[in-house]
Amino acid sequence: MKYTALTLLLLFSGIFASFAQNANNVRPLYDKKTIGEVRLTLPAAKWVDALDSMRIYGAGLLDGTAMVDGVKYENIGVRFRGDKSYQTGLKRNPFTIRLNYKNADQAHQGYTSIKLSSALRDPSMVREMLYYEIAGKYMPVPQACYTKLYINEEYIGVFVNVESIDKQYLNTHYNGASNAFFKAGIDGKPIEETSPSSSDCKQNIFGSLEYEENMECLKGNYDMISKDGWSDLQELSRVLAQDPANVEKVLDVDRALWMLALNNVMVNLHSYSGNYSVNYYLYKDNHGRFQVVPWDLNLSFGSYKNTGKGSDLELKDLMVLDPLLHSDNPFKPLIHVLLKDAYYKKVYLSHIRQIVEENFSNGLYEKRAQEFQGMIVVPYNDDRYKLYSLDDFQKSLQMTVGKRSKIPGIVELMSRRAKFLKTHPELTPLPSTVSALQVQGRGKFENAKLSAFRITANADRFPRRMLVYYRFNEKSPYQVMSMKEEDAAGLANGVKAFSALIEAPNSDDAVLHYYLMAENAGAAVFFPANYSFKPNMVKLSELNK
Questions:
Q1: Does the first or last residue of the chain, that is N or C, have fewer Cβ atoms within 10 Å of its Cβ?
Q2: Which residues contact 115 (CB under 8 A, 6 or more apart)?
Q3: What is the pLDDT of residue 24?
Q4: Domain residues of the chain, as ranges?
């Protein structure tokens, strides 16, 4: 018997989905290797009308019961969510499911909310999954997986289940959840309808972080999720506008640069980097610095095409989107102010270079996109409410889908974009290579124990300087120290040696977490490359053996 490629894919995916269902009793909520299942029982026969009414008039949630991967929860609340992705009269809208709606302690594996994305304007159904997976290599981002949704025993379709940015998320990543916390944009309100509270306020700035002397002006552009914090948000925008030399004190700049680099590479223009400065969260951590979290990514990879400069871009323009987009735009201070600094600009370009090399030039993104689609082809085909045909779903990785919206094929866009970025003049300068890294241990016949960490390393291509970022507690921000250039014999042309001495806390159990940055005339590079999650570590007790 001969099978078409589609038949084989359906058969394989059916077996995979069956296995996933058999494992529901132990399935982690955000397991990307299996497909989850949420079954809602809602009391209203016309539940779409009820949820539409609540969405339009902002009145509460609809009571119901949920089965999450086979576990039953009573007294949950349901509502439609989303701005551009929400449409009246549709069953396949994005959902928020509040497990703790009536019972504050009710949670599934610690998660109190489930947020299902309908993947609007994404015929491939992989944009959010792919963006979050790539971004998660470089900065904390929500988890995401596929989940099938049933309501009153009717199959509504396969959705992207994205981890809610809430108390659980903030405790996991920032060891706290009670500080200033904002979402850029007003939840449940179309972007175009957001407006400041007074005509004296700047107009149409959205979540750009432009400075407003009148704090009330902020309230038309951000959702405050915490109990208070407007003054903290105002201070962040003031520092960007008036005191950028001290921006590190109020913002985790490296994380912000990662988000901006990810948005640019993956053409995520429904974000701070596009027309409206929205779809990101700001949380002030326990060290007084705001952390950024990207959100709502179904329009990434060129599905939304407006940068705020002129009309929507054509595919050929998206392929060659300027990596320094908005660097000359004072109305986008997070980009303009940070990239005006020569060092931050090199760091940002280093991030772009790394994202492209590790995910796109090597074709890894295409393989992962195919794997994601292979997982869901059966439940997608079974979805009577899907917004695109199965044929469009299958073609959407390789070619543009739609005559009106013209959603770019992800490979069609990114194969050309990766080549463009690899050869862009801002990205062609070669960074230094860090080598000969050592942390000096106690000499064989030395009696006195070491009380400091002495780090040495070399860098080639005529480095101007080397920095060491270090900390002794993984919950603390890194401190930075300039390394001293050493006179060393026998080094090749262009190679320099550097050293740093970092005093240890008064404990033989001290553990140093650190990474290096080498900067030459044209570029910066970090070592190790995955310093965001796996910095170098060394114990003082090991050095003293």
A1: N
A2: 81, 94, 95, 96, 97, 161, 162, 163, 164
A3: 45
A4: 5-167, 170-360, 434-543
